[in-house]
Amino acid sequence: MSAPVTSAAPPTARTDAWSRPRLAGQGALLALGAAGGQLMSFARNALLGHLLSRDDFGVAAGLAITLQLLEMLSDVAVDRMIVRAPDGDDPRMQATGQTLLVARGVVVALVLVAVAPFAATYFGAPQATLAFAMLGAVALARGAMHLDVRRAQRRLENGPVVLMETVPQALALAATWPVVWLVGDFTAVVWLAILQVVAASAISHLTAERNYRLGWEVASARAFLVFGWPILLSALPLIAVFQGDRLVVARNFDLGELGAYSAAFMLTMVPSVLMAKVGLSLLLPVFARDLDDRARTARTLALWMEISGALALAYLAAFWIAGGNLLRVSFGPNFAGYGPVVGALAAMWALRMLQVVPGALLMAEGRTLATLAAGTVRAGAIGLAIMVAAVGGSLEQVAATGIAGELASMFVVHRWLARGGHRVLAAAFASRAAFFACAALAVVLTVEWLSLPQADLARVAIAGLVALAMLASVAAWLRWRGAPYSVVGA
User: Fold this and answer.
1) How many other CB atoms sit within 10 Å of the CB of residue 377?
2) Cα angle, residue 293 at apex, residues 289 and 297 outer, rounded to 5°
3) Distances (CA, A) of 434 to 362, 376, 418
4) Is the pTM of this model over 0.70?
5) Per-residue confidence (pLDDT) for residue 159, from 0 to 100
6) Which pick of 34, 132, 161, 208 has the fewest CB atoms within 10 Å?
7) pLDDT value at position 191?
8) What are phi and psi of 118, to 5 degrees?
9) The predicted structure's pLDDT at residue 444
10) How far apart, in whole angstroms, are the C-alpha atoms of residue 89 and residue 381?
11) Of 378, 370, 376, 356, nearest to 287 (Cα)?
12) C-alpha–C-alpha distance, residues 269 and 299, integer Å
């Protein structure tokens, strides 16, 4: 009997594969790939906003919410486990993971068919029952993904995953107008989703090094479930976070308002999701390599917290000023007048951007309960959203409830860092979060004091300069105070 085929965790020594130039190059590749994928996804949705009526766009949002809800409820993080596990290269572990993905796809597809009539009725679109059932094809195709792309990520070889991210998005974008022209209504969204996921699955097989096979090993299955069950349970609060406010809007407002809210949600979500994808893909293997080197981990965390803070602040300033116009230009004149909704959602996403880096560290340590805990307290904001909607609150007031959830989540992340022996890093995270809050408030007050309307790129540049000036000021202050692990003093 042959010995198990295993691979050690990413090397602890600094080799060419983990050199700074290679990390920078892979980071740039991931950023370009994720940016391209997100921008093409956004362009497709924006084009749908122009081609469909606002009510049809609302039905399309309901289709997307239903599919995402069920996929989140069945996520056991198989792909992330392959990246971080010491034996993630083991063919038996990979085969077990692929079996879990297939099983997940079949279960989600069957549930989608079963709940289609109820989902269509909930969203006020009984005529869309067949479209909801057709989403099962998306789940089946996603379940057939080859996990070799995740094995490549272990070695910081991100070419396959970038191809899988960008090519299907490009195909779906190119097909948007013809498909809408052919079907003429919201079912175009389903056909485009099927095209995209089938293409992604095909690319995962075409770029694979190993033959695709299914298998089952009890030890591997147990490892997947031990790592993934907190993430699976965290789906419930994540549903509240990603879908809860839109479910509240669907229940308390009409389809047109749901369409507008969903458009604002997508517009503001793109930069945050982009940062989360790049940050997790790049930093998860780096943190996993450095788990035994606390000093290097601290330097990496501090550097990327500074970068994420700068990006989040610039993002918030831009959307606070120009968000309303960006929404109208992107999705069409039917979506004018929703600038305050965009601003409130941007504030929520900016706070979430600050949590990407410490979240990657906690996941690299295998502390996925942190994800569950942060998501649970974050989900508490849905109760506030329900109350706001029940008393007749506006769309922007519903959107603003998410800010409270993100602040609570940041506190939980801070506590998990501190309890895990990272007290200095927890203090650094808290200081940068406090600075971000003060700087963001200063930018908002400056914009209001100057009476800048939802405006053009020149005014966005003004806000960006204000944000950068404040960032430079806090950097100088941190250095003067000798703050631990400040990147300024590195």
Assistant:
1) 19
2) 75
3) 21, 22, 17
4) no
5) 76
6) 208
7) 92
8) -70, -40
9) 65
10) 40
11) 356
12) 28
What is the residue whose two structure tokens read 């927890």?
A: 426
Could you tell me the CA-to-CA distances from 366 to 77, 295, 424 in Å, in that order? Answer: 12, 19, 20
Q: What is the pLDDT of residue 308?
A: 79
Distances from the Cα of 159 to the Cαs of 28, 30, 75, 167, 188, in angstroms?
11, 8, 24, 12, 30
Per the listing, tokens 């009526």 go with 53
Contact 93, 147 (CB under 8 A): no
What is the distance between the alpha carbons of residues 465 and 447, in angstroms, rounded to a whole number? Answer: 12
CA-nearest of 263, 282, 269 to 338 is 263
The tokens for 50 are 């122009």
Amino acid at 81: M
pLDDT at 359: 78
8 Å CB contact between 82 and 207? no
Q: What is the pLDDT of residue 11?
A: 41
Q: Dump strand ranges (E) for 97-155.
A: none
Cα 11 from Cα 16, distance rounded (Å):
11
The two three-digit tokens of residue 457, written as one number: 């790129």
- Please list the ranges in the chain whose pLDDT falls under 70: 1-31, 72-76, 85, 88, 156, 228-244, 279, 281-282, 285, 289-292, 368, 420, 439-490
Both tokens of residue 381?
Answer: 């904001």
Between 339-353 and 255-289, two packed helices, what is the crossing angle to 10 degrees?
20
Q: How far apart are CA 80 and CA 223, in angstroms?
A: 12
Taking the C-alpha atoms of residue 297 and residue 442, their distance in angstroms, rounded to an integer, is 32
Q: Return the H-helix or E-strand segment holding 78.
A: helix 78-84
Q: Are the C-beta atoms of 288 and 87 separated by less than 8 Å?
A: no
- Confidence at residue 241, expressed as pLDDT on a 0 to 100 scale: 61
